[in-house]
Amino acid sequence: MKKEKFTVKQFHEKFPDDDACLQDVLEKRYIGVKECPECGRHFNFYKVKARKCYACAFCGYQLHPLADTIFHKSSTSLKNWFFAIFLFSASKNGVSAKELERQLGVTYKTAWRMAKQIRILFKEFHTEQLNGTVEIDETFIGGKEKYKHADKKTEGTQIICRPSKSSYNGF
Ligand SMILES: [Zn+2]
Q1: How far is the CA of 62 from the centre of ligand 1 (A)?
Q2: Taking a C-beta distance cutoff of 8 angstroms, is the pair 107, 101 a contact?
């Protein structure tokens, strides 16, 4: 079943700011997690002000959704990253660094780095698809099965970002 195209307008409605993007990463990464990995009480995490992490409402244990993703330690805003990936996934012929520079209003150097990382990500995604090693869902950032049972060990392990092949429907 063919889904409708995810438009630029829909993108900005869904991801108005960095917090909305971060929330999306959190939800995709900890999908199915019902309990705090630390205290075991039900999953109730709030965003820590001015930080890119969430804390358990009961024990204060912190989750860092961006750890081990291409967004981690990047000075580029999360929304810019999301929009860049959106542009890539919406384009059949790829996106040049020059185009990213123009669309995002970042420096050419930043745009070039982003484009490089996104291309690697897309390539990995397609390779995995071909090998059939990863079950393809429609999500952009999906944790592997093991992340659905988050515990302390998951911090520091690799997360696979899965760009939707042709659109942002997965968001
Ligand atoms: Zn807790």
Answers
A1: 8
A2: yes
The string of pLDDT tens digits covering residues 96-138 is 999 999 999 999 999 999 999 999 988 887 776 655 443 333 3
| CA 39 vs CA 61, 77, 135: distances in Å | 8, 32, 31
CA of 117 to the centre of ligand 1 (A): 34
CA distances from 94 to 18, 83, 90, 163 (A): 24, 14, 9, 13
The per-residue b/e assignment along 78-101, b for 16 or more CB within 10 angstroms, e otherwise, is bbbbbbbbbbbbbeeeebebeebb
> Is-contact 115 97, C-beta < 8 A?
yes
What percent of the residues of the chain are helix, what percent strand, and what percent coil, each to the nearest 5?
40, 5, 50
Cα-Cα-Cα-Cα dihedral sign, residues 143, 68, 160, 122: positive
Assessment of whether the complete model's pTM goes beyond 0.90: no
User: 38 alpha carbon to ligand 1 midpoint, in Å?
Assistant: 5
